[in-house]
């Protein structure tokens, strides 16, 4: 229900025009002062002309980014205001409090309180408007995402996370929502149905921030594990892991029409990355950053960035030379790290262990009976042909025992698989593809969408392949497999062709980063 409107308040504030120029592509426009308490998640208006800065003192201050002058001060929350968001048309500002459990909507022009949404039940840590303007997403301390229909003043409750929600972000087309949680995951949601679509796992600690690229192809997430992870939004595949921050990553935002990514660390460091190469092109220490709810406010197109200041209650507005940043050499030497996981699947006795030894060790070795449980090998990525010479990393190859008693357990090993080899017994004239339908079904259910799946006839030196290419093509089409290889662990036949195929998982997952970056699918 709408509450009684309260008049906005204008209170003294000061602006200092400094001469700070910490990087050739970064120039300080203004330092804004007027608060004595912490400033939390700020937001720029869609036209980039006005900044909304929420504070621990229960107010939101509006600032003119062109002149640096303080504007309206919005009062209506009973406690700290922890996050703000502008409606896509710039007419409304949404704000959420920490102790009053409410979401307030303000008239951006007059500063009047337009509407208060009740029913959160817990402090709100993140907020974002749908690009269409009809929905408002909030993430709260209780691990619940709420989708508010502003006109109906009602919310749908989205439950999947098991810890607090620190970030929410919409896809540019408004069809999807993603949420970042202290449970180490990013969750994708269908906005129309409010159903969970996919869970992105890879961070080693709390996920604090999210950003969706303007072309909708990537999601960036920052974490207390000090990394930024780049995800393919269509498949959920983790494409890149950017290292370099030495403290928690509090905020990450795309700017310059998605050609750059800026991030803020808890120690006040700002890093900027090129998104075509994912190389770091700017690193500035100690710009600002005071709490887990501090952030960067950037405009997706205009060369403007707003950061917390070094002093409590201080805000800095920066001009960016995005063209210079795009042309910059990497801020530090770039190292490429990759890894991928492949699994050997099939019924017992089809030759998985022998083929695994041939691929991993490059030689033939007799094995004593069938494998029980699982075996695995690590070997350098440099041994795989077709990879750049400056790539460092490894392939992990798993041999999963084919006995029926292991099947249920081995399904748990498939959720992070990049390549799967489905072996069949080419000497069995009655049922040569025995086991293939089962493992293809299990892969479809448990493996990531990006997994490459290959049909393998092993031990072709022992017995000729008893099926023709037409039958093989039918199996490939029926089970959604990518290719077929004829191999022999004893003679090495087919192993070189397969090694080239093993490099496929790497090609889309090379990580370019700074300090010591790495990539994990």
Count up the helices. 7
Tell me the span between the first and last alpha carbons: 47 Å
Percent helix range:
10-25%
CATH superfamily of the largest domain: YVTN repeat-like/Quinoprotein amine dehydrogenase
Based on Cα principal axes, name the global outline. Answer: elongated
- Per CATH, what is the topology of the largest domain? Methylamine Dehydrogenase, Chain H
- Rg from Cα: 27 Å
Can you walk through the features of this model?
The structure is a single chain. The chain folds into two domains: 21-327, Methylamine Dehydrogenase, Chain H (7 Propeller); 335-507, Rossmann fold, CATH 3.40.50. It has seven helices and 36 strands. The strands form eight sheets. Strands 30, 31, 32, 33, 34, 35 and 36 form a seven-stranded mixed beta sheet that branches. A five-stranded antiparallel beta sheet has the order 1-2-29-28-27, with no helix packed on it. It has a four-stranded antiparallel beta sheet with strand order 3-4-5-6, with no helix packed on it. The chain is elongated and about 85 Å long.
């Amino acid at each position: 229900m709408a509450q009684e409107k309260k008049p906005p308040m204008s209170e003294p504030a000061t602006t200092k025009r400094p001469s700070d120029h910490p990087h050739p592509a970064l120039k300080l426009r203004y330092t804004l002062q007027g608060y004595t308490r912490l400033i939390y998640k700020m937001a720029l208006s869609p036209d980039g002309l006005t900044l909304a800065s929420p504070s621990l003192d229960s107010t939101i201050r509006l600032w003119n980014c062109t002149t640096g002058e303080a504007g309206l001060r919005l009062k209506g929350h009973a406690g700290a205001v922890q996050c703000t968001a502008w409606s896509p048309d710039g007419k409304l500002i949404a704000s959420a409090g920490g102790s009053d459990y409410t979401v307030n909507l303000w008239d951006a022009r007059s500063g009047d309180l337009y509407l208060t949404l009740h029913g959160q039940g817990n402090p709100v840590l993140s907020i974002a408007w749908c690009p269409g303007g009809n929905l408002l997403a909030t993430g709260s301390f209780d691990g619940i995402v709420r989708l508010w229909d502003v006109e109906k003043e009602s919310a749908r409750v989205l439950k999947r996370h098991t810890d607090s929600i620190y970030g929410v972000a919409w896809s540019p087309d408004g069809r999807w929502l993603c949420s970042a949680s202290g449970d180490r995951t990013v969750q994708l949601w269908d906005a129309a149905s409010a159903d969970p679509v996919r869970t992105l796992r890879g961070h080693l600690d709390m996920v604090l921030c999210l950003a969706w690229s303007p072309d909708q192809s990537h999601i960036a997430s920052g974490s207390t594990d000090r990394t930024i992870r780049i995800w393919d939004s269509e498949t959920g595949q983790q494409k890149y892991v950017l290292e370099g921050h030495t403290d928690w990553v509090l905020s990450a935002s795309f700017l310059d029409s998605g050609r750059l990514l800026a991030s803020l660390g808890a120690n006040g460091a700002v890093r900027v990355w090129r998104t075509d190469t994912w190389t770091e092109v700017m690193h500035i220490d100690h710009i600002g950053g005071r709490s887990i709810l501090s952030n960067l406010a950037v405009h997706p197109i205009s060369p403007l960035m707003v950061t917390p200041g070094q002093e409590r209650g201080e805000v800095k507005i920066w001009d960016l030379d995005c063209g210079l940043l795009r042309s910059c050499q990497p801020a530090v030497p770039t190292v490429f790290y990759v890894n991928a996981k492949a699994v050997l699947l099939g019924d017992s006795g089809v030759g998985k262990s022998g083929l695994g030894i041939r691929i991993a060790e490059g030689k033939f070795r007799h094995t004593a009976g069938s494998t029980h449980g699982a075996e695995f090998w690590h070997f350098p990525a440099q041994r795989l042909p077709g990879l750049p010479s400056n790539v460092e990393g490894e392939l992990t190859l798993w041999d999963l025992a084919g006995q029926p008693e292991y099947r249920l357990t081995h399904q748990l090993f498939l959720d992070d698989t990049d390549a799967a080899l489905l072996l069949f017994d080419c000497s069995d004239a009655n049922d040569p593809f025995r086991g293939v339908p089962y493992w293809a079904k299990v892969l479809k259910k448990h493996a990531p969408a990006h997994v490459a799946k290959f049909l393998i006839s092993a031990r072709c030196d022992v017995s000729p392949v008893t099926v023709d290419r037409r039958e093989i093509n039918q199996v490939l089409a029926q089970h959604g497999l990518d290719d077929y290889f004829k191999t022999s662990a004893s003679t090495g036949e087919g192993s070189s062709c397969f090694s080239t195929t093993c490099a496929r998982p790497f090609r889309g997952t090379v990580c370019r980063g700074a300090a010591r970056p790495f990539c994990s699918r």
